[in-house]
Specification:
- By secondary structure, the protein is mostly beta strands.
- It contains one helix and seven strands.
- A hairpin with a 2-residue loop joins strand 4 and strand 5.
- The protein is elongated, with a radius of gyration of 23 Å.
Length: 124
């Protein structure tokens, strides 16, 4: 016995009314503005900011052109290492608060590279 072939033109019945409510597949590059030259996708290594909901393997969309803001997560170079840290301002001085180390003032040894704009989780 041969395999039956499905031919759409031979289908009877009516089109599903739910089809009117199907949304288009979102373009994540557009939604996350990844085509802008100052936007980058970076993958998180380690569990440094789990308390902020950022897990190892997550993809962060960062903006190198964003203004620093207190309480926001940033990607920084701290003593030669790349770290995720919460940025804060105290008495006119910016501070990095990484999860695993003491707060560090932003100085000649540190650089805030980008502010985190979005998080994409592929492993749920």
């Amino acid at each position: 016995m041969g395999a039956a072939a499905y031919i759409g033109a031979e289908t009877t019945g009516f089109q599903s009314p739910a089809q009117d409510h199907v949304e288009a597949v979102p373009d994540l590059a557009e939604l996350l503005e990844l085509r802008r030259p100052q936007r980058y996708a970076v993958r998180v290594k380690g569990e440094g900011l789990r308390k902020r909901g950022i897990h190892g393997g997550d993809i962060l969309v960062v903006n190198t052109d964003a203004e620093p803001r207190t309480g926001k997560v940033c990607v920084a170079f701290l003593l030669g290492d790349v770290v995720l840290a919460v940025l804060s301002e105290k008495d006119g001085q910016w501070w990095l608060e990484p999860a695993n180390n003491a707060a560090q003032p932003v100085s000649d040894d540190t650089e805030v590279w980008a502010m985190v704009a979005a998080l994409v989780r592929t492993d749920v």
